Structures are given as C-alpha cells and as structure tokens.
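Researcher: Let's run the pair from yesterday's discussion. Sequence first, then tokens, for each.
Model: Starting with the first of the pair.
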Amino acid sequence: MSVSGQGLTIERVDYDDLHLVMLRGELDLLSAPQLRSCLEDAMNSTVVVDLSGLSFIDAAGLSVLVTARRRAETDGNHVKVTNPAGLVRRVFELAGLDELIE
C-alpha cells in the first residue's frame, strides 16, 4: 500500500505479524491524519515506522507516533520508531521523546 499527499509519502508493506511503514517527506499538521489512518489500520500486530526518508516532523507528527505507541501497548501490540536522521532526530531529542526510537 502506498499513499501520497500533503508532502508525505507513506508506503506500508504487510507481513504476517508485522507491518513496515516507511515515511518520506514531511510529517506535519496537514499530513499527520494520513499517517494516523495508516497506523490505525495496522494496529493488530507489530508496526515498525521507518523515518529514514523523513525530512521534517512537527508536534502533530510526534503526537501521532506517541499516541499510536501508547494505544498499541494498551492492546498488547508494539509500535517501533526507527531511523530518524538529522533534524527529525533532533526534534525527538528536544521534545524528550528520543526514548521512543529503537
């Protein structure tokens, strides 16, 4: 599955018990609802969100990831955030959310 729009491309590859979600572009107030919808559809198992292609993230994007992770943990599932680079990693650090990165 691939979704594009609002400056963000989301590609999701589904395996038996794992969903790999790869992001490219900018995750912000306009594009966060796209990611939220994608993650909600994949919450029945482990989700790995690869941020290596992300060039920008704001508070709305962080909120989607934090909310998805908390919801998954409540349901006995996992959301793992991986590979943030540059500015995106710095935003996680400044927000005190770098512990979310695996």
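Model: Moving on to the second of the pair.
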Amino acid sequence: MEIVYSKQSIKDFEKLKQYPSLVEKVKALIALLEQNPFQSPPSYEKLVGFENVYSRRINIQHRLVYEIRPNEGVIVIIRMWTHYQ
C-alpha cells in the first residue's frame, strides 16, 4: 500500500527529529504498515468513533495514528506525536 502523509504528520515528524530513537521507531512502524497494516506484534488499536483509523505506540507517550483506505490502496499517516498536548 502507498503511504501518504497529512500536513499535521509532517509537522509532527519535524518535532520528532529532536529524538533520533523515536525517528527510527517511526520509520520502522511505517515500513511495517507498507507491508501489512494489520500485522501484530507490535499491537495496534482501532480508534473508537472512526472508521478504519488505528493507532500504534511509538513510545509510552507518543502514538502513530493512521487511516487505512483499502479502496484507494492508501494508508494516510494522520499524527506522529502525543495526544496529550
């Protein structure tokens, strides 16, 4: 599947660049999503109230939030930062 980035996820990635270990983790998660967005482990959770939107942990604080659009063959990366700020 093709990976597409939202404007917000691009801004989030800029914040993540100050933490090299998190950047590596995000890159690994995105590579995993390209191969199989439903692969587990690492675990993922479907977000309540959204259709085809999922979350995976980057670390204890940060999440990678993405939407799978199967009809388009696309995965949209929505966020790569904390949902607590």
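Researcher: Give me one sentence on the second I can quote.
Model: The mean pLDDT is 93.
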